[in-house]
């Protein structure tokens, strides 16, 4: 069928933990993507099945992109940036905290101190390298396409797959789809396609989901895409590398909403032989934070680049981070970074 990611003993400890608590809080990372939101929603369903008397609450540090709003129950997830006091109280009083789709404390933004000081039990499930969150149960599987895929495998292994409903199947499919670039990246494994076929048997409508995620933008986003690729892309063709910046002023001009920058960083990799694409986006409120996204091809190590230059990390082909500085600082650092890897990029 597929390769298990947990032993039966681990799975039993997880279900036992979930069964004996009254409050379960499921959290994902800041700037949540389809996998973070999908895994949180999927796990929430599973936790409710395992313990139907528990109060199960999803929590995120900040807003998810607009194109995920249609996900069933997405509006039940609580945001720390909107309801800090309520979320703090929830987390402090939780019997179990479930951490999904992040490997390090710094990925949860303002939730970091609450997570660090939390005294109860923690279950940590993630597909990034080197998990450092202190947890009672750690399920780490960097080979997995997505955290959503990991949750799905655990649900199947526990014999619960047929007991779930669309509130599970749809977010899990969405998480797997978004982290694999619509099932096109190398992280989509034979297991991924097997699991997708199982989800399709549950009548998950992949056409509708793909349209909801990929074809659900405003006209402004399409014009922004054209503007960025035409006017902002700096391509260093000798090094098969490019970067672009996106400022607050530009985001205002193009009526930017959260999620509108999604996927832009992938586009320069469409250039023949391109090895590296970098996106530098000013924070919408703090002029001294620039969000960085990187994508690589031909084995360029994006995670290493992001660790070294951008206070971040991620996967080898898709990583991110941030710069504490202005957009001009970000460009300088980026030129240094590209030069640093000149030999590899040539
Ligand atoms: P994106 O470019 O889509 O924001 O992120 C791509 C991948 O990079 C994500 O799946 C995540 O694993 C990783 N990533 C993004 N931002 C950060 C960051 O600040 N720190 C770390 N460690 N990883 C990040
Ligand atoms: Mn993920």
What does this structure look like?
With 346 residues, the chain is an alpha/beta fold. The chain contains 13 helices and 12 strands. It has a 6-stranded parallel sheet with strand order 3-2-1-4-5-6, sandwiched between helices. It has a 6-stranded mixed sheet with strand order 7-8-9-10-12-11. Helix 10 (248-253) links the parallel strand 8 and strand 9. Helix 2 runs parallel beside helix 5. The longest helix has 17 residues, at 34-50. It starts with 7 loop residues before the first helix and ends with a helix. The structure holds guanosine-5'-monophosphate and manganese (II) ion. Manganese (II) ion (MN) binds at residues 35, 101, 127, 146-147, 179.
């Amino acid at each position: 069928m597929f390769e298990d990611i947990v032993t039966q003993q681990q799975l039993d400890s997880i279900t036992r933990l979930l069964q004996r608590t009254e409050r379960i809080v499921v959290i994902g990372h800041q700037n949540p993507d389809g996998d973070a939101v999908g895994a949180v929603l999927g796990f929430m369903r599973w936790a409710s099945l395992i313990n139907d008397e528990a109060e199960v609450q999803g929590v995120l540090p900040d807003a998810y992109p607009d194109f995920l709003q249609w996900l069933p129950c997405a509006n039940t997830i609580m945001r720390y940036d909107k309801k800090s006091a309520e979320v703090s109280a929830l987390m402090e009083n939780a019997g179990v905290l479930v951490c999904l789709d992040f490997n390090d404390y710094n990925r949860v933004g303002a939730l970091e101190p609450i997570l660090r000081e939390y005294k109860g039990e923690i279950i940590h499930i993630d597909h990034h390298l080197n998990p450092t969150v202190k947890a009672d149960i750690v399920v780490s599987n960097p080979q997995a396409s997505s955290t959503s895929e990991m949750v799905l495998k655990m649900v199947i292994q526990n014999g619960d797959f047929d007991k779930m409903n669309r509130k599970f199947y749809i977010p899990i499919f969405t998480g797997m789809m978004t982290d694999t670039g619509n099932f096109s990246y190398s992280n989509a494994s034979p297991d991924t396609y097997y699991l997708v076929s199982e989800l399709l048997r549950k009548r998950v409508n992949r056409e509708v989901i793909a349209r909801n995620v990929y074809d659900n933008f405003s006209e402004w986003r399409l014009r922004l895409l054209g503007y960025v690729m035409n006017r902002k892309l700096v391509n260093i063709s000798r090094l098969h590398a490019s970067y672009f910046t996106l400022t607050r002023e530009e985001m205002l001009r193009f009526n930017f909403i959260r999620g509108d920058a999604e996927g832009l960083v992938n586009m320069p990799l469409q250039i023949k032989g391109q090895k590296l694409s970098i996106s530098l986006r000013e924070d919408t409120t703090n002029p001294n934070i620039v969000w960085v996204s990187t994508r690589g091809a031909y084995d360029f190590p994006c995670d290493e680049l992001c660790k070294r230059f951008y206070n971040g990390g991620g996967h080898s082909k898709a990583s991110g981070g941030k710069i504490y500085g202005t957009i001009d600082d970000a460009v300088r650092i980026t030129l240094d970074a590209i030069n640093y890897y000149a030999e590899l990029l040539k």
